[in-house]
Amino acid sequence: MADRTKVTIVVLSIVILVLAVFMLYYFVIQPQIQGYVIQKQTEGMVYTVNTILAQIQQYGYVQIPVNENQTLILVPYVPPEQTQVSGETGTTA
Questions:
Q1: Which of 58, 50, 52 is nearest to 72 (CA)?
Q2: Quick one: 32 exposed, middle or buried, by C-beta within 10 A (0-12, 13-18, 19+)?
Q3: Torsion angle (degrees, nearest 10) of CA 45, 56, 74, 76
Q4: pLDDT digits (tens, 9 = 90+) for 19-39
Q5: Average pLDDT over the chain, rounded to whole?
Q6: Which of 6, 9, 39, 74 has the most Cβ atoms closer than 10 angstroms to its Cβ?
Q7: Which residue has the higher pLDDT, 79 or 47?
Q8: Which of 76, 73, 49, 48 is nearest to 60 (CA)?
């Protein structure tokens, strides 16, 4: 009877230990890993956008290869200035 009690205690202790390790991973370690991954992804995006903007400022355009035979060309966009219509006569200012 004493051996059976010891075995039960050992088995329950192992189950509790496994559950404790699982909870530690799920609530402590995994969020830290996800936070690190998100931080690095954000840094990569900021670096990429800054590099594209720097190339546009330096060269006036940037070419980004999309597929084998396709290239995306980005240039600064300057919207055309619109003339204002004054009154109902349709004359321009």
A1: 52
A2: exposed
A3: 120
A4: 999 999 999 999 999 999 999
A5: 90
A6: 74
A7: 47
A8: 76
How many Å apart are CA 21 and CA 25, to the nearest integer?
A: 6
Structure tokens at 14: 């192992």
**Cβ proximity of 52 and 63 under 8 Å:** no
Number of H helices, E strands in the chain: 2, 4
Q: Against a cut of 0.70, is the pTM above it?
A: no
Rounded Cα gap, residues 44 and 36, in angstroms = 12
Higher-scoring residue by pLDDT: 27, 91: 27
Rounded Cα gap, residues 72 and 66, in angstroms: 6
Rounded Cα gap, residues 30 and 41, in angstroms? 16
